[in-house]
Amino acid sequence: VVPVVQASELTxxxxxxxxxxxxxxxxxxxxxxxxxYVTSYDPRTRTASWVIEKLNHSSLHGPSNRKFCDFKxxxxxxxxxxxxxxxxxxxxxxxxxxAAAANHKWSQKAMEDTFYLSNVAPQNPHxxxxxxxxxxxxCRSLTKHYMNVYVCTGPLYxxxxxxxxxxxxxxxxxxxxxxxxxxxxxxxxxxxKADGSGVELQxxxxxxxxxxxxxxxxxxxxxxxxxxxxxxLLFVHNIMKxxxxxxxxxxxx
Amino acid sequence: VVPVVQASELTxxxxxxxxxxxxxxxxxxxxxxxxxYVTSYDPRTRTASWVIEKLNHSSLHGPSNRKFCDFKxxxxxxxxxxxxxxxxxxxxxxxxxxAAAANHKWSQKAMEDTFYLSNVAPQNPHxxxxxxxxxxxxCRSLTKHYMNVYVCTGPLYxxxxxxxxxxxxxxxxxxxxxxxxxxxxxxxxxxxKADGSGVELQxxxxxxxxxxxxxxxxxxxxxxxxxxxxxxLLFVHNIMKxxxxxxxxxxxx
Lengths: 253, 253
Ligand SMILES: [Mg+2]
Ligand SMILES: [Mg+2]
Description:
The structure is a homodimer of 253-residue chains. Chain A has helices at residues 7-11, 17-20, 85-88, 108-113, 125-129, 131-141, 224-231, 236-242; strands at residues 31-33, 38-42, 47-55, 94-97, 120-123, 148-156, 159-161, 167-174, 179-180, 184-192, 198-207, 248-251. In chain A, the strands form 3 sheets. A 7-stranded mixed sheet of chain A has the order 1-2-3-6-10-11-12, with helices on both faces. Chain A has a 3-stranded antiparallel sheet with strand order 7-8-9, with no helix packed on it. With 253 residues, chain A is an alpha+beta fold. Chain A contains 8 helices and 12 strands. The A-B interface holds A 27-30, 42-45, 49, 78, 80-81, 157, 159, 166-174, 178, 180, 225, 228-234, 237 and B 27-30, 42-45, 49, 78, 80-81, 157, 159, 166-174, 178, 180, 225, 228-234, 237. The complex binds magnesium ion (MG) (2 copies).
């Protein structure tokens, strides 16, 4: 079956929120729409709660050049709650993209918008350059098999049992503005089948730590419910509301 | 100068959001309006980010009886992110009211609404029964001197330096649903002068811990900016937008 592509889909810019948010808003706080993504900012942690992008063949190709991009403060955020590059300096953490720059070659502006520090979180440099980078490549490669790949990325702050037997959330904060260092990151992929028969979900959770490169990405697959409980966000409920009855939702195949 | 009270103020119910939120919304996520307060829920921590009430002479007096009130789950919150009384059982923490029950004697429904577990956070029992209770009484007593007392209450998760010299946020989570135990609580009071000449602010931060009863409440006064930075919320900016030029805003006098 050849998918029927709506005319509107061909003309609307990639980053417009109506297009990116086809499967709903995981939460409704401080929503911002940028050229390449839609995001919800958490002023308490000074990072996004989530960032959603829509990838497909055409968003991945174009003339954009990362050389002309620079990290920048998000001036739409009050200075009390805004991350600066100075906060990251000497912290030992990378400015890790949530929406990846290389996903938005279609427009220089779209690529530049991924460099807002509100689209960034403190990330282990080894993770950023290796396994996390592989996960970003995996998202892009899925555009070969799916009509559209919606990618939702965000930080997690997971509890751990301590010596007293109780569960505690513990995370570092860096810089004068006390940017939270997530304990983990998630990516939820909503994969739209070309034949319109439904969507598949893939949910990944990676520790914000050096990860042995040989560990395959499949090792980090988790049930979507785990991400939903830990993040405070909802995905499946939103997708269900929008899926037609003949569409199937499959998770983590 | 005798304040000109608008007719609408006399007829509108106490809890209606237009009345309670006269000085704006500290944030815009998951806003809920209840009979006695307006609140913003944080599904990740399973507690409110803030709760605002409006107190005055008439809200403090009436036929309500706490005996007929019982803690209850907030069914408007998805079960993944909802606190239950079972989560608190055996945790060593009280179900501590954010909007206080005794502030809403004017209506049984208003008092009952303060018993939603979304208006509650895990609180040190000694603090709850002593210094925190005194702070709640202080808020009520201010209605003798001010026309209206707006009280905004919420949890804080403050960083602390650890042995490695770095700053970490650390907090316990309790129960099957992993309810966050705040490290501190804040109350921001917006005090409306009877002569309409302006508002005064008082901001308190108390540790979620046993506090020596003899320590006076003034000891816990902090600059409003401290609460704004730590909570991710904004108060002064919202008040400024709404204050007429002749009105003075005074903090912590
Ligand atoms: Mg990166
Ligand atoms: Mg109490």
